[in-house]
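Quick one:
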Amino acid sequence: MNDSKDPNDSKDLADSAESPRPTGNVGGSAGGGAGGGALRGVGIGCGVLVAVPVLLVLGFLVTYSVQRGTPEDYERVAPQAMMTRIGDVSQESYEVLGFEAAIGSDASSDFCYPDGLESMADEPVDGAYSLSHRWSVDGVSESGAASALKRLHRHLKDEGWDIDSYENDADAVYGLELRASRGGPSDDGGDIRAVFEWRDYDGRFEGGVHAPCAYDPDAGPGSEPATDAGSEVEAPELRP
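Output:
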């Protein structure tokens, strides 16, 4: 038996004893770095999620305040002058329609409400009014109404009106109808609208012209809405 030891075995044992071993801190440091980065990412994401709604709300409030503090760009027109304007449209339309009788008419007025975000407050504009002129003719036949609307439809198109709807079919469910509009003096005030209808259940032909919103010059700033403008004007009598 040979009891001699191999020198290489001793060297291997020494190398093993001197070799450093990995400790748990190495893996822990790596894991801690990744976890910290993840937590920081979550924190940033949550901050963004909170900031976006706050900015949206602030933008909404700023826009609303600006719109509330800006007066509507309505034209300043006395109610009687506005009635003359839309009465002239009614008279011209009545002549084109070709009805033979002279008829009376009436005027009415309504509130004006702002557009945009401030419309949510549902508050009418102080000192403003919306005026309408209406009239009607009884005993009109369906064929007579259809012919009259056809003439008026052609006339309004030639005069530059926008035709919003035109029902001149005998099979129309609700009767015959023509609706047209024309741009008003200001963007805020809206369009001048004209509506002409014939209903088969009573043979009545009705017409109406609706003015855009306007300020009453006599109302003054900060006054109440001019809801009584319709009672202060004289509506014209329409003649063939």
